[in-house]
Amino acid sequence: MSHTRKNKAQLLNRVRRIGGQVEAVERALLDEVECAKVMQLVASVRGAMNGLMAELIEEHVRNHIVAAPEMALEGEGDGHHHDPNEATDELMSVVRAYLK
Amino acid sequence: MSHTRKNKAQLLNRVRRIGGQVEAVERALLDEVECAKVMQLVASVRGAMNGLMAELIEEHVRNHIVAAPEMALEGEGDGHHHDPNEATDELMSVVRAYLK
Amino acid sequence: MSHTRKNKAQLLNRVRRIGGQVEAVERALLDEVECAKVMQLVASVRGAMNGLMAELIEEHVRNHIVAAPEMALEGEGDGHHHDPNEATDELMSVVRAYLK
Amino acid sequence: MSHTRKNKAQLLNRVRRIGGQVEAVERALLDEVECAKVMQLVASVRGAMNGLMAELIEEHVRNHIVAAPEMALEGEGDGHHHDPNEATDELMSVVRAYLK
Lengths: 100, 100, 100, 100
Hints:
The structure is a homotetramer of 100-residue chains.
Chain A: H1 3-6, H2 8-30, H3 35-66, H4 68-74, H5 84-98
Helix pairs in contact in A: 2-3, 3-5
């Protein structure tokens, strides 16, 4: 069971709020608002995206790395991520994209 | 004239693409896709946001700082940004938000 | 055994190279080099720091989270990090500092 | 006159503090300190580097872009940066490196 299902509602709320923020940037451009204001709106979307990514990283580590041995014993889950090293590879590809 | 009007169409395209990417994240969560995939989608939205911000920064510097003296002479524009120092203050508040 | 001991030499080389890069920034300021050049030197130090952090994050996850159950069985190590959740807390405090 | 000369002492202090922080990371590795602590030290060096870069960016914009017309009139300076567009190109190459 992909861990995102557990906190699905919470993650969906975050993403929908971000969608709303992106629409606010679009409206600001359509309304030819001061570009300093547009830059602030874009900066706040980035902050929200960073918050979402931190949430996903934490869930990935706790559910696919920390809990991997336990899930393997119980035979539960989607069969992919009982290998904590594979889950670590996936984590690191995102971390390195952020830490270029 | 806020500089965003000059490149309005181009900026709007960028923002709408980003909106589409955020919707893709939402769909991935709804479809309970592998969280590694969700993280990659979020990382690509961040990359697109960074590209948009770089575009806005460059426009802000060229139109509200470099071109300020010229615009002041011509009496053109929205009356706000003929003061390049004020425009620099606005730029730096965004830069410092990114360089925390 | 803190995982940094295992790759100590490699990590020390990275940090010493970064120290050398910081000294290069200092020299550039002393020599009143073009500020664009100073900015490039600072940007390259940041790149090297990001590479070092990615290395430390990967080691922390593999040695203190993935290997935690095994180390707990063998009774090896420094007694701190056989709790993968505690190690995840430490990881997330760094991740959230980067993802503000 | 490269703007870094004006605030040379202040910038040098910042860089030397960062040098000291990098040495602290080196000592922590030599002393095999907990890797969570090493990660925190590296995160604080990054914060200091970001502060230095924001300082350099602000100076570059105010001295080589905002002040360019004035400096061109007075015939002062190092002959490079009386072209605010060239100085903007230099600024954007650093901004885009940070906003990958």
